[in-house]
Amino acid sequence: MMATVMNSILLQSALEKMGIKTRVQTAFSMPEVAEPYSRQRAIRHLEKGRVVIFGGIGAGTGNPLFSTDTAAALRASEIQADAVLKGTNVDGVYLCDSRNNNVMSEHISFRELASRGASPMDMMAVTFCEENGIPVVLFNLHEPGNISRALCGETSWDTD
């Protein structure tokens, strides 16, 4: 629970150092470090050009039964986001090919991802994004510059 809030604050600090205005929202009260989640306030922050980071259990839902992926998909739907950005420790979705086990897909449909059974993202979140028409962009957090590239729309992996 606290780790995701701490990560949110670290991300906020990094973005603020680059001159990007941000707000952190959580589903539980932490007024010293974040504001309480409010859909209307989140949308207003976005309208003002701020980045909104949802922290806490399940990306700020306050429900421990939600994965952070599923909660991110839920919040994306609530604020009518253009996409869900998923930072992870892989470069993308690798396809199994009998000739080469290291074939990476640059683009894959939600259906194809679901049929493969293994995903770098929770399948409930993938399904939720598909049902709500929200593309998912996956990027490797360990490669310098990837967060900026993902924010600028340069994808390493996406779904539609």
UniProtKB/TrEMBL annotation:
The keyword Ribosomal protein does not apply. One of its GO terms (biological process) is UDP biosynthetic process. InterPro entries: AceGlu_kinase-like_sf, Asp/Glu/Uridylate_kinase. It comes from the Eukaryota. Pathway: Pyrimidine metabolism; CTP biosynthesis via de novo pathway; UDP from UMP (UMPK route): step 1/1. Its EC number is 2.7.4.22. Residues 2-140 form the Aspartate/glutamate/uridylate kinase domain. GO terms for molecular function: UMP kinase activity. Pfam families: AA_kinase (PF00696). Keywords: Kinase, Pyrimidine biosynthesis, Transferase. Belongs to the UMP kinase family. This is UMP kinase. It comes from Actinidia rufa.
